Amino acid sequence: MKEILQALVEIVGTEFVSDQPEERYLYSMDPGTMPAREPDFVVMPDSTEQVRQVLLLANQHKIPVVPLGAGLVLSGLSRALKGGIILDMKRMNRIIEVNEMSRYALVEAGASQGMLQAYLKKHHPRLKHSAPDAPPAATIAGNVCIHGSGHISHAHGFHSDMLNGLEVVLPTGEVTRLGSCATSDYWFSRAPLPDLAGLFLGWAGTTGVITKLAIKLYPNYRFNDVGVFVCEDARLMPDILYRMSETQMAEDLTAWMTPKPDWARGFLHSNINYGANTKEELIWKRNLIRASVSEYIDRKIAGFIPMPAAMKQPFLEVPARQLSRFADVRKGGGFEYVGVIMPVDLFAEAYELGLEIASRLSVSYSLGARIIGINHCMMFFYAYAFNRADPADVQRAQRALEATNRAAVDMGGIPWKAEAPAQKEIIRKMDPNMFALMNRIRAVLDPAGIMNPGNWEID
Amino acid sequence: MQYEEILHRCFRCGYCKLPENYVDFNCPPYLSFRFETYSPGGRMWLIRALLDNKLAPTGRLQEILFSCVACANCVTHCTFPKFKDQLLLAFTAAKEQLVNGGKVPPAVRDCLTRIYQHGNPYGHARKKRDAWTDGLKVEPYSDQEYLFFVGDVGSYDTRGQEIARSVAGLLQKLGVSFGILGADEISDGNEAGAMGEAELFKYLAEENIKTFESRGVEKIITLSPHGYNAFKNDYPGFGGNYSVLHYSQVLAPLVKKAAFAPDQPPLRVTYHDSCYLGRHNMEYGAPRTVLTALPGVELVEMQRCFQNALCCGGGGGNVFTDIIGSGRQTSAGVRVGEAAASGAGVLAVACPQCAVMFADAVKVQNLEGRLAVKEISEIVNERLIKQEVN
Ligand SMILES: Cc1cc2nc3c(=O)[nH]c(=O)nc-3n(C[C@H](O)[C@H](O)[C@H](O)COP(=O)(O)OP(=O)(O)OC[C@H]3O[C@@H](n4cnc5c(N)ncnc54)[C@H](O)[C@@H]3O)c2cc1C
Ligand code: SF4
Ligand code: SF4
Asked: Is the pTM of this model over 0.90?
């Protein structure tokens, strides 16, 4: 271990390696419910070359390497399940280039959502990226590589769909570019080359380390508004969402159902966020959206909540801070959610499942969904709050998460950014040939099995 | 430990590391060291682990906890309204726990010992406390309107002394009636308190209060925002109730009325909000009022300003202990870079500690010649002098 420490120091410098109890303790867990797993080292590289050297070293000594962004995924994906090195990428946070005309940004893997947001606001006010509601310290790479979604996902799909290209370091140390950047100085798209970026999307850091990535940018509207549409019958939701998405006016379409505050209990809310460059255009969009669901309004079975501007503010905020505050519901600093990617058709079933589990296991819950693409699918979330200081409460939330993951898979959904146990649930239902192919690919890319081991594995 | 009931409520979401516009990390120790352990959320969890005996109070843990510069960025930007106000209080309580157990970094121990033995963190003789007045005729406090409380940095640090002289000279020119305590002044205790030495802070406060009472002090002007904070917010708890002003608050209305020559050369200035004036006490206007009253001065803001200002890294005793100075990217270094990027030729401060921190940083960052660090009264004085010469 001493020699490994020394070798790591030589690569990144003394200040950026730790094998001390404080770092090993803190980096052993994330804010979710998954049990702690201590790494042997925490290492903070500052360049692709340093990442490459760390991987060569790890490969030579068969030391596990776990890439870490902000660790906000909540499902414990960046814990060192088998010890080894946690590679905290946040020093590599440069915004390398923004191509205004081709609307993309090239960033290092540790660049945060918040940094890019601030950078664009200052230097390219006509552009924005699709930010998730994760706290702004979340990294762009960490989010893209788990197929995240965010504030423009209704219009443009998963954040992985917005990826133009990657620079990755393979577990065996080769630095590889994928997408147009493999052939050109421009990072404008993944087409028309064979799309190898998929080897790093959805793999939970088990195939290599992303060091740079380019993502698409979109027009930053001058005026933005939100409508909140409410109904009481979950069975109506797929049609309501279908009609709203048919207008193609919204950038973001989300649903939320919570038992708190009391006035919200039992109601299903759909937030529809849209923007425009003139007030007239905004009103025109608003009218189109209203017209799409007028039948429900006319029949008085659903309708828009009249909202003064101040009340809209939290719904227009990017990211929405109030989502993080759910962690304090039980005055205990914790929540974790199962986000299930599934067809919108299953909305009512998914909703009933959440209510049933919350009541059966007595957990504090919040349910909701983000519509990805124009009703192409949704990320339905089941968030359960827990009190970190009370192990029984943490266990209760864990049980609810497990039950949700299992039932969601059985329903035809797929848990997103799944915890290691939930990955096993998915594998249980997965086409065995796909799983076999995944293993073959991993064996080729990572012969020593060093990348985030314990994930996407049966045992 | 006081406030321990909030520790587990931290979600480790990290809003507290950032300013409101998320442009970059705004917690100085985190910025310097980059391990999550140095972030506010990391501290919360480490302190919990310390109390639960999951971690021992090792030298490293001590360094981590004492690297907090008490800048209150986390208090301002934590997204949990129900406990955010107690974050810094919890960090200070944890330091207090270490102090009481004798588990503090050597630099902190030595600094606290010097304050205890000499009434100041430099360990200099008390009788030299008024050495800064050299060349100025400043009266001892007797029946003047204000006591001018100079504080440790203004009394003993060379750069601090220049600032003390500049401020006192300007107050005199503007006709403010004040006197000083000289050798009777001792540390205001703000830094001892921030380093978790609650007993020493209490002792210093009580000693100062005794002096103030015996001299009939009612109104105080402080040179340092740190002293301003202690007198305004903490001394009432020890029975010391005074009308307390930071000198910028005294200058603001007076400078507006002062006469300046119209043909002043243009000067682009950016102002750095000191944490104890800004985030701790919400005084953002007075220093800006002083600067904008000056003919020829154009005030430009840095990307992080007002409640989003990046701390100079000198608070929490760090100006004396330099615990965060060992990190590679110091906040003072980043801050002077940000000031230069704003297009300003002058970085204006209203705190002697900030001035000391930035003076070094400008050299380290090779910004000498491009960016001058000036205290606000120095900028006023330059212009007043020109007027007098004219
Ligand atoms: C309140 C809250 C709201 C949220 N809202 C959303 C939302 O709206 N949309 C959304 O998509 N997510 C959301 N999330 C989930 C999550 O926080 C985000 O997806 C976040 O962007 C993940 O980024 P990270 O930097 O924290 O990744 P991490 O958690 O650090 O990493 C995620 C995974 O990616 C791997 N990884 C990280 N960096 C690299 C790299 N450079 N190379 C290879 N692998 C890497 C890790 O090993 C891990 O497996 C939310 C979370 C919270 C707490
Ligand atoms: S202190 Fe507040 S903002 Fe910071 S990590 Fe904890 S809960 Fe989040
Ligand atoms: S007070 Fe400042 S230095 Fe201390 S933890 Fe909070 S943000 Fe960091």
From this structure: yes
Q: Is A210 in the pocket of ligand 1 (CB under 6 A)?
A: yes
Q: Do B34 and A16 touch (CB under 8 A)?
A: yes
Strand A163-169 to strand A209-216: parallel, antiparallel, or no bridges (unpaired)? antiparallel
Query: A56, A88, A120: which is the final residue of a domain?
Result: A88
> How many pairs of residues across A and B have Cβ atoms under 8 Å apart?
115
User: Is B348 within 8 Å of B286 (Cβ atoms)?
Assistant: no
A367 falls within a domain: yes
pLDDT tier at B385, thresholds 50, 70, 90? low
pLDDT computed for residue A76 by the predictor: 97
Give the tokens for residue A394.
């943490």
Backbone angles phi, psi at A174, to 5 degrees: -75, 135
Which of B34, B38, B58 to mutate against chain A (most A CBs within 10 Å)? B34
Give the whole-angstrom CA distance, residue A19 versus residue A43. Answer: 9
Q: Is A89 in the pocket of ligand 1 (CB under 6 A)?
A: yes
For A220-250, write each residue's pLDDT tens digit.
999 999 999 999 999 999 999 999 999 999 9
Report the CATH number that the domain containing residue A244 is assigned in CATH: 3.30.70.3450
Residues of chain B neighbouring A387 (CB-CB closer than 8 A): 8
Question: Is the ipTM, as predicted for this complex, more than 0.90?
Answer: yes
Among A253, A264, A245, CA closest to A227 = A253
Whether A118 and B33 lie within 8 Å, measured CB to CB:
no
Number of domains in chain A: 4
Give tens-digit pLDDT for A335-379.
999 999 999 999 999 999 999 999 999 999 999 999 999 999 999
**Residue of B68, B77, B83, B275 with the most ligand 3 atoms within 8 Å of its CB, for mutation:** B68
